[in-house]
Design brief:
mainly alpha, 4 helices, 0% strand
Amino acid sequence: MHRGPLYLLLTALCVSPVLHAEEAQPLALNPVSSTPSATSSTPSNDSAVQINALQQQLAESQRQLSEQQSASGERETAQIARLRQENQRLKLQLKQAQAGQPPRLLTDQQLWFAIGAGTALAAFVIGRLSAGGRSRRRSEWA
């Protein structure tokens, strides 16, 4: 075994966990909560202010997301309706094209069966014709 591909494989295996790692995003703190206030000297008050600020940011982002989804939902509904109409039109064209074609004599499975039977028959005839000029020996089996 060559050592070159083995080293390449080991290098790829060592690097692959680094490629899948995710970087931790630092939390964006509200400027009000990042500066300590004179009235909130305890750590629990600071964390409560941070939690409230984060909850407000979460509520705002959820509201913006729902607005975006409703706007995109209207566009998707119009697009779905247009695609359904096009689908119906294409189905109608397919039915018309199939109605215009004459019916097939054989299906694909029947066609392959006929080709196999023809090949076997041709092989039998060629085998009989090629052995016709020779003297026949009696076989032990016959």
